[in-house]
Structure formats: C-alpha cells, structure tokens
Design a protein that fits this description.
single chain, mainly beta, Immunoglobulin-like, 4-stranded mixed β-sheet, globular, binds copper (II) ion
Length: about 80
C-alpha cells in the first residue's frame, strides 16, 4: 500500500499462495476480503508488512482496507 491505495489494485495469486504486503504509508492499513472472511491481514502499521493466504478456490475476491473504505482492490486467484 502506498499513498492510501493498493498497488497493484488487482494482484494475481495461485490458490493457497502466501502473500506478503508492505505498507509504505505512515498510517495503518489492512487487506481484508469483503466477501465473508476469505482473508484478512489485520492491522499493518505504517512501514510494516503483513501476510495472508490466498483462498484455495480460484476466483475474484474483492478486498478493502477496513480503516479506509475508499481503498479497494481485487485479488485474482487462478
Ligand atoms: Cu488503510
């Protein structure tokens, strides 16, 4: 995350892949699936990094930062 946006906004991953996200802002962010609880990094402090595991089923998974609802993205699992 950088400048209150996800980069890229539509990352791709393999099913079950471990994904590391880096927060380059000073504010805390999260990567949280909007569809149920497919994945959630929890709060990642500014300058810190976090991980989550991609869902095991292929598909498109919208996600959001719970602190900043205008920060959105879509994880593409294939
Ligand atoms: Cu945020």
């Amino acid at each position: 995350m950088e400048n209150f946006a996800f980069r890229p906004a539509d990352p791709e991953a393999r099913p079950g892949q471990q994904i590391t996200v880096v927060n380059k802002d000073s504010a805390a962010h999260t990567v949280t699936a909007t569809d149920g609880d497919a994945f959630d990094t929890g709060s990642i402090s500014g300058g810190d990094s976090g991980t989550f595991t991609a869902p095991s089923e292929a598909g498109r998974y919208a996600f959001v930062c719970t602190f900043h609802p205008n920060m959105t993205g879509t994880l593409i699992v294939r």
